[in-house]
Design brief:
The chain is mainly α. The protein contains three helices and no strands.
């Protein structure tokens, strides 16, 4: 598989001089350019936001699965682990 060169794109930002000075100082402390520092910081934060959203989405899917499992009539006796999960869910979630 051929590798493609990464095409840089431009992003212009207007920030207060005080913010730029702080960024420059921090970048200098890490031995980076301002651009490298801002890209690394923005990328790290973006990945955190995406990961947190993924966890929230998975948690909602887990809740849906739990509710459907509890409502199904196929099981004569609810397994203990399902009861434990349901109890923990009830303790943590407040219905409005």
């Amino acid at each position: 598989m051929a590798q493609h060169a990464v095409q840089p794109s431009r992003m212009d930002l207007r920030i207060p001089q005080e913010v730029r000075d702080i960024i420059d100082r921090a970048a200098s402390m890490e031995g980076r350019t301002r651009t490298d520092f801002v890209i690394a910081a923005a990328l790290e934060r973006a990945e955190q936001v995406i990961e947190r959203r993924k966890v929230i989405r998975l948690a909602m899917q887990d809740q849906d699965l739990l509710v459907r499992s509890l409502l199904e009539d196929r099981v004569e006796e609810t397994p203990q682990y399902v009861e434990d999960i349901a109890r923990e869910y009830a303790d943590r979630v407040v219905s409005e």
